[in-house]
Specification:
CATH topology: Metal Binding Protein, Guanine Nucleotide Exchange Factor, Chain A
GO molecular function: carbon-sulfur lyase activity; metal ion binding
Family: Belongs to the Gfa family.
Strand content: 25-35%
Shape: globular
Helix content: 10-25%
Number of strands: 10
Keywords: Metal-binding, Zinc
Strand order of the largest sheet: 4-9-8-7-6
InterPro entries: CENP-V-like, CENP-V/GFA, Mss4-like_sf
Pfam families: GFA
Number of helices: 2
């Protein structure tokens, strides 16, 4: 059951050029959200640390075609979402049983929300099946993505 609208914290963000946006809604107090800094080389080089809530909502939008680019690395199970113009890493998603699960990169959120301290995680030590099981537990289900043509 979702939280009443008044209880939702809505965190919004965008890439550097503003062509990609993100909206993350959660009933969790932002101070209790601890960004997970993935230790893989791709995420480290982008300074990524992800937040999510399995009872929250997450949507990405694009203002023009070509803004949303995807990159797969490692086990190629997840899709990293980047701006095709300025290169900002906005989030990560994966598909399972007809649903799209995801997390937003806390670094792209506007207004520097007061989040909890970051924790380093190491998904590269997990098998693809273990990664998916973890993601199913902590990521937002039913992520909304912009249409393929932007």
């Amino acid at each position: 059951m979702s939280a009443p609208v008044a209880a939702l914290n809505i965190l919004r963000g965008s890439c550097h050029c503003g062509r990609l946006g993100a909206s993350f809604s959660t009933a969790i107090d932002p101070a209790a959200l601890h960004p997970r800094a993935c230790d893989c080389t791709f995420c480290r080089k982008h300074g990524a640390a992800y937040i999510s809530d399995p009872t929250g909502r997450l949507a990405f939008d694009a203002t023009e075609a070509g803004a949303l680019r995807e990159y797969r690395q490692g086990s190629e199970t997840a899709r990293l979402l980047l701006c095709g113009y300025c290169g900002v890493l906005m989030g990560v998603v994966f598909d399972h049983a007809g649903r799209t699960y995801g997390a937003v990169n806390a670094g792209c959120l506007d207004g520097e929300p007061a989040l909890g301290s970051a924790a380093v995680v190491s998904p590269q030590r997990l098998s693809p099946a273990e990664k998916m099981e973890r993601w199913l537990q902590v990521w937002v289900p039913d992520v909304v993505l912009p249409p393929a043509n932007g």
